[in-house]
Specification:
Helix 1 runs parallel beside helix 4 and helix 2 packs parallel to helix 3. This protein starts with a strand and ends in a 17-residue tail after the last helix. The chain is built from four helices and ten strands. The longest helix has 20 residues. 36% of the residues lie in helices and 30% in strands.
Length: 194
Amino acid sequence: MRNAACERETKETAVAVTLALDFPSPPRIETGLPMLDHLVAQWAFHSQCSATIDARSRDAIVHHLVEDAAIVLGQALDRAMGERTGIRRYGSATLPMDDALARVAVDFGGRAYSRIALNVQSESVEGLAAGLIAHFIASFTQNARIAVHADVLAGTDPHHCVEAVFKALGRACRSAWTIDAAQPLAVASTKGVF
């Protein structure tokens, strides 16, 4: 059972996340930020996991809410992965969405790193600062202990560009965390450990 529940309460936010990697169900993402809810729901749907996020701001600062939601989602993923035994480890997806083309590659080997090139030319996407979208992915990556490379290769519509990234991230994650049927007890590293 690869699932986890995590909470974080600060003077700035209150966030609760549940995650189940192997039992897909419709996501329920409630942050009070419609575009963030939409993007995270796309990630959950395309990763075929079950995810709920209940997040609320206590100080009305959007940056704090976005960051803390990402932190707790990442922590939940890290816990759900456990020892990461048997996973394929790597995943990638190239995803078209109308004018946008996104490519995401991930490594679930336990080391956090992110390189995010959204190439969005507007300051905000549906009311959410473009910089906060990249910050969400970076904070999620850090706390999940995964490496993520995300690129928008083409696109003019900012909404399509960032949505394509989250869909591709979901598909890449699903590929990486899938148990390798040929080696379900192995660690996908020549070191023998992550």
